[in-house]
Fold this protein.
Amino acid sequence: MFFLPDTTYPGGASSRRGVCSFLRARRSFLVAGIAVLLSLGVIGLAPLTFSNKQEISQLSTTVDALKVNQDNMRQLSATVDALKRDQDALKRDQDALKRDQDEVTRDQDEVKCDQNDIRQLSATVDILKRDQDALKRDQDALKRDQDEVKRDQDEVKCDQDDIRQLSATVDVLKRDQDALKRDQDAMKRDQDDVKGDQDDMRQLLTTVDALKRDQDALKRNQDALKRDQDNMKRNRDDVKGDQDDMRQLSTTVDALKRDQDALKRNQDALKCDQDDMRRLSTTVEALKCVLYKERKQTATLEKRLHEIKQTLPSCPEGYTMWRGTCFKAFDTSKTFSGAANACGADGGTLAMPQDAETNTFLASLSKSVSHIRAFWFGLHDRREEGRFQWMDGSALGSYRSWAPGQPDSHDGNEDCVLYPTSQKDKWHDRNCHQRAYFICQAAPERP
Ligand SMILES: [Ca+2]
Ligand SMILES: [Ca+2]
């Protein structure tokens, strides 16, 4: 059988867990036993089918065993009942323990509160002790003061006694003094009679002394006045110097004022200049923008010009373009025919100034090469005297620029025309074999 103690379990929770596992094991064992018995009962019905005795005896043994098992079952049932009771008792004990635990917790909280109260009380007691010490010190100080007061009181009492004695002595002295005064008054009356004569003498002497003192004082006053006069004179000189300084200062101040005004005017002018500078700066910025645009445009135009030049016809080297024709003044001397051949070698002819503008241009071109040389150009009357024609065979038109008296076909042998050394834009007919510089013209070349 299983028995439980009545009240407490020193092992606590671990003991209770051991008991519970034990109960569960016993319950499993009980269930297993019941199962065995039931199987044996089923088996016990079998012998009816057996005939031999051996089997019957075996069955008898089995029945006995079953009876024993039945007894065991009963014992187990009793054990289970006892265990249930023990379990109930354990539960009750557990509840009691829980209640005890709660009470202990509450007691613990109360103890904590009490501990806090004790700490506060301890702090209060410390404060009270410190107050008590301070009070003791104050009490000692008061006792010392009291002792001093007592000593002062004793001294005052001694002084009072002395004062009383002094008062008595003073009364005696007063009486003596009154007696003395009376004697003194008598003496004075006698003395006054003697003094009457003496006073007159003394007054005279006093008057003389006073006069002497007045004289000395007058002298001192006189010296002081002289010193004052000297001081005054020096002060006057100083004042005069200060006045001069003041005048100079005034002049300086006026000059400074004028300078200030001039500075103000300069400042105003500078401000105006500054404004102008600002405006100029703005204008410059605007101009820079314009300049930038212009430059850009110029670059574009130059580029375009370059492109156009690439496509335009150009003059041979050394020739200058004039109204779509190229001209060149040569600085070598040739006959008219030699000059014409030289121009032909360049792909052109001798120049043909068929209008006033071209004539002026050619005169200028020849002068750029030489001022003192004559220049052939392409006009002649070699085919028929008096009938002038250009190098391309066309007849001389209405425009002509003969020098006065020309053409004169001097000696009947002048059939070629040139610009003479003087009057470069005027024409002269000359001997074609004469040597002169010359001017060629050519058509521009296509690139
Ligand atoms: Ca002629
Ligand atoms: Ca001539």
